[in-house]
Amino acid sequence: MTQEDVFKKLISHCKEYGFVFPSSEIYDGLAAVYDYGQMGVELKNNIKKYWWDSMILLHENIVGIDSAIFMHPTIWKASGHVDAFNDPLIDNKDSKKRYRADVLIEDAIAKIDEKIEKEVEKAAKKFGASFDEALFRQTNPRVAEHTAKREELHSRFAKAMNDNDLKELRQIIIDYEICCPISGTRNWTDVRQFNLMFSTEMGSTADGAMKIYLRPETAQGIFVNYLNVQKTGRMRLPFGIAQIGKAFRNEIVARQFIFRMREFEQMEMQFFVRPGEELKWFEKWKQTRLKWHKALGLGDDKYRFHDHDKLAHYANAATDIEFEMPFGFKEVEGIHSRTNFDLGNHEKYSGKKLQYFDPELNESYTPYVIETSIGVDRMFLSIMSAAYCEEALENGETRTVLRLPAPLAPVKLAVLPLVKKDGLPEIARKIMDDLKFDFKCQYDEKDSIGKRYRRQDAIGTPFCITIDHDTPNDGKVTLRHRDTMQQERIDIDKISSIINEKVSLKPLLKKIAND
Ligand code: ATP
Fold it and tell me: What local confidence, expressed as pLDDT, does residue 213 receive?
């Protein structure tokens, strides 16, 4: 099965089992907007709790806020979004499809990289154990040719983006013969800038309505509350403010399911530091955040850093944490050293001082900021794509199982009476009633036990217990583990402690604590 097929299956699995639905589906949907179903919302909430606790519980110097989506419009002028939150768009005149010019070029670079890797793979197969990969990369003429082309393309691209040179972006697309994936032609329009912010009006027109924006990031709500939190929380630098909330971007090309949405959710933390110390903290937060991802056990080789060539208007260092999705390594989280750009500009535009008096230095300054910014939906997608698995069983059947990290699974325990009679449902109900205070349980008595196990595998439930005819006599149930499918008999009164230990966030948080 190709990765594309796996991705298609994952999307339909998400729908079939109540994780993600297309928004407004009975009206044929709304492009790049999705709703989370009964399972999806649980997984999403668990992801958010893992992030929130890792920030707020593990760091005495990080606090949370929840700022409004609507904000004063001047905020977006000060932040640079009104003038610079643009993507370069280009249309293909034949297919009438619209693309981001930068993404077309990035894809072309990725294709050259693939060619290089294929050459290396081919040679590795041919030469076997004696293969010297480093030497091959340095000396093979075909690899050298591809590498030179890549370097040239890449440096032209980086320069055009840095200079905001739209003509040059188009010229690169022409010179490198980049075609429209739909029509296959190179009949391109000019490249134009497109602002990604949604706007609406606040107040009635008679009052003089004010144009306001739906926030394209949650970060600005933190910056404009910096002083409120610093003063009321008596925070001393370095300290952080965390926030989870919706953000909105009118993405030009919205595709790849919940990877690129027009309404999505972010988990952002702005860490305020002394000027001059920002790069040290940038490195620190890179490592802390990578550790958070890796603790989930989805596979260490599925992550990599990607340092930015083009720095955003506010940054002096930036990297992405990329995850290997079914469609390649893609950004899940951005870590940015935002300097004092945001606070400095808010000082300028609002006329209010947003400074910190540093008692050690005996001076006041505008703090520098390190930002960690992760999309809940992209995190959801990365977890789902790593967890989704079709497994061949010994009896020739296949089972679809979501190997979700147990603390994130929507349902932690399924409670299954073997039959619908002989007092077994009553015992099962009693167990449900005891455990429902600890974690999400699901009761199911319909169909054969095998079918019920499959249903739970498909939603990623890490544990099932079965109440059978021995239970009334020995006070034991059968505990079945999702991943190994192994079964063991355990006492009813031990269920709570056994499951609690496995599904709690605590072991995950302990893994990443003490940085
Ligand atoms: P991209 O280059 O993919 O457009 P970005 O660099 O603009 O992303 P940031 O502004 O750094 O993204 O936003 C921080 C995080 O918010 C991203 O790492 C991503 O997880 C999430 N995010 C951004 N845009 C979207 C979107 N349209 N849909 C879903 N998540 C998003």
Answer: 96
Phi, psi (degrees; rounded to nearest 5) at 339: 50, -150
Is the link from the previous residue into 472 a cis peptide, with omega within 30 of 0? no
The residues with which 357 forms a beta bridge, in sequence order, are 364
Nearest alpha carbon, ligand 1 atom 9: 334
The CB of 331 under 6 Å from ligand 1? The reply is yes
Q: How many helices (H) and strands (E) does the chain have?
A: 18, 23
Inter-CA distances, 166 with 78, 80, 101, Å: 24, 19, 9
Residue 514 in this model has a pLDDT that exceeds 90: no
Q: Rounded to whole angstroms, how far apart are CA atoms 387 and 508?
A: 17
Q: Give pLDDT tens digits for 61-101.
A: 999 999 999 999 999 999 999 988 888 999 999 999 889 99
Rounded to an integer, what distance in angstroms lies between the CA atom of residue 62 and that of residue 333? Answer: 19
Q: CA triplet 152, 155, 157: central angle to 5 degrees?
A: 105
DSSP secondary-structure letter at 389? E
Report how far ligand 1's centroid is from the alpha carbon of 25 (Å): 24
* Cβ(266) – ligand 1 distance below 6 Å: yes
The predicted structure's pLDDT at residue 44: 98
At which residue do the structure tokens 């893992």 appear?
A: 50
DSSP 198: -
For residue 472, count other CB atoms closer than 10 A to its CB.
13
Report the C-alpha gap between 503 and 211 in whole angstroms: 47
Residue-wise pLDDT for 411-432, tens only, equals 999 999 999 998 999 999 999 9
Q: Is 325 in the pocket of ligand 1 (CB under 6 A)?
A: no
216 lines ligand 1 (CB under 6 A): no
